[in-house]
Design a protein that fits this description.
The longest helix has 15 residues, at 325-339. By secondary structure, the protein is of the alpha+beta class.
């Protein structure tokens, strides 16, 4: 297990089934919806977190299983009740809420019991507005999802908003998780999970905060089942799991975070087995071996890899027998980029056959990359699929066997030298040896025909950018120059992907021009957009009008007109979650300034060289030459992408030094 996985396994800890016994009556709370008093309102800022724009006062959830007597199958009801106070206008977006419901005819979720209120304190009197079911707006947001939306009216700074609803679902394999923590402080959050003895669930609790209550107890419950011979009553033991968390701090996002939702305190459930009286146990996911078998046996995963004669015919003429492994792989990727288009849907399983994907020329991420594995095997290569989770979806942890957390697939080829090459054919701008950013997310699980193992999904290719700028300082305080930007490795891939996401190259150029807010762009050329084997080069002609200060006989300016750190991206006093730069970073900036006629150098920043251990270095050099020019070289090298919270203070100080050095000014003095 690598360092990243070890940290996550420690920080996002498992909640074991054997729970500590604690009196539920000790801290459990309840509210009466629709009733508040003046004392319930927070006046001014929230004392425990003065930066908070809102605070969750109460959040209660209960998942309780019941049985559809006629259908003879279990479902669960999740009831949620929340109360929140809006502190200031930054939190007005919390007046809008939505609940996603699965909307498949065989497994349709429904919502009931909706009630909501907004309370405002005016002259020590409470004005209350109520919302009912008729105020809900339901939209079909995808083939299998509909969304219920509601908006609180008359929300202002100081408003208390609250709501309750119940979701009925037959999707018992993976009941809805419960999130205790948010980017807002939470005063009280309670969750109950009440499940019949027939179902055994894996529990996974993530986050850094521990419950103040964590207990379980057994209770008997009767279920009525209808059948051809009438109705019968069945008594079953239910296990009641109970968690309470109090005074949870806000977990706020910050730059260079994989996905902040990975670190919120929350609990997830996945069905491990079911055992009904008189029936053989049905095992689902209790170990990674179970997950591996489910995937191999699935017609939508392992079954998809059998390929088709059509695919064999397509691959037959791509490369001759003497071609190298790399040449064979490159030819297969090129065929995919030219013939199969990604439909922007991420999935860990195929919904179509290989023949259907080839015939229509499009597919989801699993269909394309599983087909890629099959194609590579047709070329005689040792290829296997790797199931993973996208950055947006969250992280999969090795200590917690699960199939539900996966939502993506990439391909892996083991070369003759035993090197493992990861591939993704969904993006035609993704060159050999790289993955799209969405797929770079800790570990994935490689599924072989008779083995499985974990693989690291990080890539070695850095975000490599080189800026070469030649500029002339004009006597009137303007700077005229030309800039050449050479993007290599992951930087080139990223920029080519940005170009692809625009309607055409001209639209992309307009976006680039707008990104230089301090420069007037008068020329922009982009080379090598299509050739993935060479760097992408941008040439930019510019005029800077507002970057120089003139006072009396002096000219003042900071030397780095572009890519300078104006402020430290790391602002938290303490950060509990890792810093993730996604990929290593190499950024080289070289400025050559021609001095204006009639001016000489009065002050130059000093050169500097500092580092953060072996993993980050910064070099800043300033010198002059005999041609009346100032030459500045800035080099930032961050040679690993992932830093643990223990590194945060040192990394923050490293960037403080960069900001301080890059903010130092050059001073020119009139020589006349």
């Amino acid at each position: 297990m690598n360092l990243t996985a070890k940290f996550l396994a420690r920080a996002l800890f498992l909640a074991v089934i054997i729970l500590a016994i604690c009196s539920p009556s000790l801290l459990a709370q309840s509210i009466r919806l629709g009733r508040v008093t003046p004392e319930d309102f927070i006046q001014g800022t929230y004392e425990k977190d003065p930066e908070a724009s809102a605070v969750v006062l109460y959040d209660y959830g209960e998942t309780r299983f019941d049985i559809d007597g006629q259908a003879g199958r279990f479902y669960y009801n999740l009831t949620r009740t929340m109360r929140m106070q809006i502190i200031d206008e930054r939190a007005f977006s919390y007046a809008d809420h939505s609940i996603r419901l699965y909307d498949n005819p065989s497994n349709r979720e429904t919502m009931s019991g909706f009630n909501a209120y907004v309370h405002n304190l005016e002259d020590n009197r409470i004005k209350t507005t109520r919302l009912r079911s008729r105020d809900l707006l339901t939209e079909k947001t995808s083939d299998n999802i509909k969304t219920c939306k509601f908006t609180f009216p008359e929300v202002k700074a100081g408003s208390i908003i609250e709501f309750t609803y119940t979701v009925k679902s037959f999707r018992i394999f993976s009941p809805r998780p419960w999130q205790f923590q948010y980017s807002l402080p939470v005063e009280y959050s309670e969750f109950n999970f009440i499940v019949p003895e027939y179902y055994n669930y894996n529990f996974f609790m993530q986050g850094f905060e521990a419950p103040v209550i964590q207990d379980r107890k057994s209770v008997n419950r009767s279920y009525i089942i209808s059948g051809a011979s009438g109705t019968q009553t069945v008594v079953a033991t239910n296990i009641h799991y109970h968690w309470v968390m109090k005074d949870l701090p806000a977990l706020r996002d910050e730059p260079f975070t994989t996905n902040i939702s990975n670190y919120y305190s929350a609990i997830f459930f996945e069905l491990a087995s079911e055992i009904f009286p008189g029936s053989r146990p049905q095992l689902y996911v209790s170990s990674w071996a179970d997950v591996d078998k489910l995937l191999r046996d699935s017609e939508y995963f392992g079954g998809f890899l059998s390929g088709t004669r059509q695919l064999r015919n397509e691959m037959s003429g791509l490369a001759n027998d003497e071609a190298s492994e790399e040449e064979k792989i490159a030819s297969v990727l090129s065929w995919f980029h030219n013939n199969i288009r990604w439909n922007n849907s991420t999935s860990m399983s195929a919904g179509s056959t290989a023949r259907q994907v080839i015939n229509r020329g499009s597919g989801n991420s699993a269909e394309i990359n599983l087909l890629l594995v099959a194609a590579l095997r047709e070329m005689g290569l040792n290829a296997n699929p790797v199931v993973s989770s996208t950055r947006r979806n969250g992280v999969v942890l090795q200590p917690f066997p699960t199939i539900n957390r996966f939502n993506y697939v990439v391909a892996a080829v083991e070369l003759e030298n035993k090197e493992l090459l990861l591939l993704d054919a969904t993006d035609p701008m993704c060159p050999l040896g790289m993955l799209p950013l969405r797929a770079i997310n800790y570990d994935g699980r490689l599924i072989g025909d008779n083995f499985a193992r974990w693989v690291d999904l990080h890539v070695e290719a850095p975000r490599n950018e080189k800026y070469e700028i030649h500029a002339t300082i004009m006597p009137d305080g303007e700077i005229e120059g030309k800039m050449t930007i050479t993007a290599s490795d992951f930087a080139a891939f990223s920029k080519r992907s940005d170009i692809k996401d625009h309607a055409d190259l001209e639209e992309y150029k307009e976006t680039v021009k707008k990104s230089y807010s301090n420069l007037e762009i008068n020329e922009l050329n982009i080379e090598s957009v299509e050739d993935l084997s060479v760097p992408l080069v941008k040439t930019v002609g510019f005029l800077a009008k507002d970057d120089i200060q003139m006072a009396a006989d002096f000219i003042y300016f900071t030397p780095l007109l572009v890519e300078a750190f104006k402020e430290n991206p790391f602002k938290l006093e303490d950060r509990k979650f890792p810093v993730d730069f996604q990929v290593p970073i190499v950024e080289e900036i070289s400025f050559v300034y021609n001095l204006p006629e009639g001016y000489e150098i009065d002050h130059l920043p000093g050169s500097a060289n500092f580092n953060f251990g072996r993993n980050a270095q910064y070099n800043f050099e300033v010198q002059t030459n005999g041609d009346g020019q100032i030459v500045i070289n800035s080099l930032l090298n961050i040679n690993k992408s992932f830093f643990l919270p223990a590194d945060y203070a040192g990394l923050k100080e490293f960037f403080n030094k960069i900001v301080d050095k890059q903010s130092e000014q050059i001073v020119l003095k009139s020589s006349s």
